[in-house]
Backbone:
């Protein structure tokens, strides 16, 4: 039996897409930077079907690229050429919220927006938010250990995983969906699968830990003379802010571009070199906590908003960075992380390393040292620019990927921030769990 | 060169203990249930020395049992016979609290009490507490993914690990101590080492995530007609209690024993079948939140304490269980977990399965379904009693270990709550990272 026939026998003819035009949307990522041709796109409707699909692929020696909402930024969910794309979007089962454990069961194909809706209806919160919420799926978020602006409070997606169900390369199932917060019987296979980007197993369902919902919010925009002052501000106020919910930063370069793009004027009269957005959220009254922390830290110059309109106006300055940069050209975009106290020297080093006519824009999540590096000017296809930035990341004790993942885009650079012994251990684990190398080949490990 | 000479060459003669009486305290656990003779006890003073010790042991084909404070309950840190005990208690480096990230670097040998002290001095909290805090070490807590009463709020020790340094069997070092909250570059080797009980690597240092300190506390003891009502109570109030800090349970059997042991009278006039302790902690005023939640849930009969004396008196009823049970005989003690909504049927099944003259006492952490099963009466050496309980755990969708670990005590029963495919994956990982099988042989995987 041919591979396609074998797949049809498992999921039915309608769920195996072979026509080029029907496959097309599954073969390219949304940035259009990564694309490849798939042998077929298969859309199983249950974990058992995923087992059967993986077994069929193993029998045919066919490589498999798992795919969720296909919103990734590092080419990890599109075929490189000839693989079977395993789309999980039909696994949309979404349970009722368990009020005793504050957990909910979600199929891998449930979108983040749907999960957030279910949480809100129970008076709770999903604990994670990213811009791609309407398309990004639970399975993809977990496979990539996504981050976002709320990680400073709740951790990355890893912290939301109370358990999961996944299918390993040999078709065996890891099933830990009882929602046991404490379960240290043997190795944490679910934890190993989180962030493994589909190279060690295919996630089919997640037991998701919800968090308390905080409806009262207060936001401050603090203009500062340097990124070094931004890190100092955080150190001064963070221990005083148990309700800290987000801590973002951007610089004058980015703000200029944003204001130009939005045709708006600066919200602060005195233009500064760096800006920090600090948001607190609580059941009630976070403004008082924020004001007390600012007084203790000697912060005098801050724009504070505690109503929705004011907050949205300030958040827009941060959130419009991506579109403002895209409007200005095709940038080199790198998601990296550095220890918070190295942010300023890292930023200076990046500016210095880039050509004098380049526009270097850094912004991101100050609270967890997650920096989005954007460079406008140099040829977008010149990998030397990316590599130069990543080498500086390594030199400052950082990571070449904070929240986007390694995918195929950065697999060749993993050695920059991982020791040879660590990479050898990763390769040994990959070989142990997927000896045929059929799960998402080329992603994570080059 | 002999193994002992090779070890002496690494750490110096004084740090290799070979005399039987000097080795003795390292060869038996504190319950005196597990013991074995060690070839030597070696006490390295740095991660580099750990590397050299592991390399020397590998050259001599000598098995190694890593040991922290030796407070474990499942025999995972004492020799079975002839291994080298690798004691990490000299790794006591403890850094200053990083206020921007709320993290602190701690050597594997730092005690939990010392870590808690450092956190408190910075106005923060370690986020974990267990009774053995004065002896239990950071390395041991992480290797076993310890739990405790605060896990309902902060998660288990796993959630406290912002990074770690560990030595693998081949002497290579996993070093992720930059404290990057977001770092998804490659597989989460630190996460795999958490809870692996020294079978995949030796943890030498941890980057620990601290949490906010909550000084205002309110505690309620709620008498209920059944354990089923306890689970219902939790489901009714939990979504209303963002400041929930602990949620414990015990039953009339345990309380009788405790009151007898303490020679005290019952704190509630009407004796009940089950009791729930609910503690909230916040920067200020958790009592109001607690009272509002109880009103919404229709709880009328509760003892509430918001001063230190009153809280200590109520907590004593829960905390005295272990000593009261020990005073009454040598019990079968099993640390297990079941989904919260299965607690009542599980408890009924355990009572039914035990001999009629046995005293069956269940208590523990309701908020995370962690049950400590104690059975007084049957021969303490009769493994059939333990196995019967663990089979019931499996039948109720639970885990045979919640917070104590598998060690050697439960390795033979791992298959009860882990699928064959999962155990095969664990064995494959073990073989990949420790092909010689030299790290803590016999623990976790039989």
Residues:
């Amino acid at each position: 039996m041919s591979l396609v026939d074998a797949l049809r026998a498992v999921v039915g003819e309608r769920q195996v897409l072979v026509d080029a035009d029907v496959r097309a949307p599954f073969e390219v990522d949304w940035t259009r930077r990564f694309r490849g041709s798939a042998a077929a796109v298969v859309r199983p409707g249950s974990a058992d079907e995923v087992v059967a699909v993986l077994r069929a692929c193993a029998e045919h020696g066919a490589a498999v690229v798992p795919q969720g909402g296909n919103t990734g930024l590092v080419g990890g969910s599109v075929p490189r050429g000839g693989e079977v794309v395993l789309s999980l979007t039909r696994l949309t089962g979404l349970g009722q919220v368990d009020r005793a454990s504050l957990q909910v069961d979600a199929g891998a194909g449930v979108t983040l927006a749907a999960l957030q809706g279910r949480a809100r209806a129970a008076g709770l919160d999903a604990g994670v938010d990213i811009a791609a919420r309407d398309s990004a799926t639970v399975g993809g978020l977990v496979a990539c250990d996504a981050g976002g602006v709320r990680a400073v409070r709740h951790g990355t997606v890893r912290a939301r995983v109370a358990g999961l169900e996944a299918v390993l390369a040999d078709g065996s199932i890891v099933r830990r969906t009882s929602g046991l917060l404490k379960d240290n019987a043997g190795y944490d296979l679910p934890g190993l699968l989180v962030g493994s980007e589909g190279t060690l197993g295919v996630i089919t369902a997640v037991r998701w830990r919800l968090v308390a919902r905080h409806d009262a919010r207060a936001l401050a925009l603090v203009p500062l003379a340097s990124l070094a002052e931004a890190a100092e501000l955080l150190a001064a106020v963070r221990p005083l802010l148990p309700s800290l919910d987000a801590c973002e930063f951007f610089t004058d370069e980015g703000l200029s571009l944003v204001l130009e793009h939005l045709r708006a004027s600066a919200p602060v009269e005195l233009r500064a070199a760096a800006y920090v957005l600090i948001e607190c959220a609580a059941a009630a009254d976070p403004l008082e906590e924020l004001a007390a922390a600012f007084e203790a830290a000697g912060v005098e110059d801050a724009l504070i908003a505690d109503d929705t309109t004011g907050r949205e106006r300030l958040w827009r300055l941060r959130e419009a960075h991506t579109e403002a940069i895209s409007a200005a050209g095709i940038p080199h975009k790198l998601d990296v992380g550095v220890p918070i106290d190295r942010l300023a020297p890292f930023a200076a080093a990046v500016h210095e390393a880039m050509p004098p006519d380049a526009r270097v824009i850094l912004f991101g999540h100050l609270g967890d040292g997650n920096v989005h590096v954007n460079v406008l000017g140099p040829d977008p296809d010149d990998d030397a620019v990316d590599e130069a930035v990543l080498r500086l990341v390594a030199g400052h004790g950082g990571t070449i990927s904070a929240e986007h993942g390694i995918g195929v885009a950065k697999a060749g650079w993993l050695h920059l921030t991982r020791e040879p012994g660590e990479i050898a251990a990763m390769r040994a684990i990959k070989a142990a769990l997927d000896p045929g190398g059929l799960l998402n080949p080329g992603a994570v490990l080059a």
Chain A touches chain B through 92 residues (CB under 8 Å). Chain A has 15 helices and 17 strands. The longest strand of chain A covers residues 201-209. The two ends of chain A are 32 Å apart (CA to CA).
